[in-house]
Amino acid sequence: MMLPSGDEEMTANCSSSPACPANSSEEEVQLGPEFHGNLKLVFTVVSAVMVGLIMFSLGCSVEIQKLYSHIRRPWGIAVGLLCQFGLMPLIAYLLATSFSLKPIQAIGVLIMGCCPGGTISNILTFWVDGDMDLSISMTACSTVAALGLMPLCLYCYSWSWNHDQNLTIPYQSIGITLACLTIPVAFGIYVNYRWSEHSKVILKIGAAVGGVLLVLVAVAGLVLSKGAWTSDFKLLIISFIFPKIGHLSGFLLARLARQSWQRSRTISLETGAQNIQMCVTMLQLSFTAEQLGQIFHFPLTYGLFQLIDGFLIVAAYRVYKRALTSRRRNKNPGCAETCRGKKTPSPQESRAVLQGKEETTTVPGPSEAENLLRDQTIPLHVTRGNSLA
């Protein structure tokens, strides 16, 4: 019979004591920045279901012809990908270098800049009357492109920082994000194709649910990031200005590429709104608990500030739209009373009206042309007869 060694005896004696080093380390891990077991699972499942329902409702606004035109001529998608994986990693690198961050903190900021666009941009795009077909196609394409461009951007920008940490790309999280995006949107497109009237009701419900979800996410962000206000002040400033620079640079690049105002708004929102969950997952996979404490609050504060920026952009657009409508009414005062009770037609209704007008204004055939000529020649004979008489 073998006797237990000193280490084994000490472990056996303190296994039931709360002062045991092993037990205290487990409690520290459980109370650390990671989510608590079952709570994390419930939060993940509920958020995935809600995001899937919202994407299904937003998919009801997508038209197959417009989506195919974006895929056939992907100029808008190309500009969006350039903003997503060209501008955002560069901005993250410049911010980390300008504020002289620690290597771990700099890598955390760079990971945020290399993440693809999040689903929050699709909800905000709907509220600012953006191009929903371009928004959803950009989100899907950026998520697929993240499989290769994300590690490439991290390698190109992080080599100048001295770190021995192996960065782990969350391919499983990327796959889940892509599935939660494409499958509900495909069902929404089918519903819009078969039952266009029902899709309008589903779209309004989804927009309302999306607003409630964003409010809940903002409240959760405030609760989870309450310790971030006392953390590193540099990271707090970067999380405040980073999404604003992303929105502005994306809008300016889209305008330089001669994109329409509607597409420019869409690309701007897609550029500044990052996938926070993917950034958190990558941080958890790449860093230890001690290293994670130095950077974990950054994606939470970034997500909170990007929500606030999104609400401000939507509010500013609504105020601008209302002012523009009132200005048009003042120019045409006679139409103000009649147009006030009328409902603004949707793009689908306007397109249907234009097609109906084109069908009604047909070119007359040969028989109709002969009848018109016959009607025009009859008065001529009558006038000649009268003149001779």
From TrEMBL:
UniProt keyword Transport, yes or no: yes
Localization of this protein: Membrane
Top-rank lineage group of the source organism: Eukaryota
Compositionally biased intervals (Acidic residues): 1-10
Principal location listed in the UniProt entry: membrane
UniProt topology in membrane: Multi-pass membrane protein
Keyword annotations from UniProtKB, A to Z: Membrane, Symport, Transmembrane, Transmembrane helix, Transport
InterPro entries: BilAc:Na_symport/Acr3 (IPR002657), Bilac:Na_transpt (IPR004710), Na+/solute_symporter_sf (IPR038770)
Skewed-composition ranges (Low complexity): 12-21
Family: Belongs to the bile acid:sodium symporter (BASS) (TC 2.A.28) family.
Protein name in UniProt: Solute carrier family 10 member 6
Naturally occurring in which organism (per UniProt): Echinops telfairi (Lesser hedgehog tenrec)
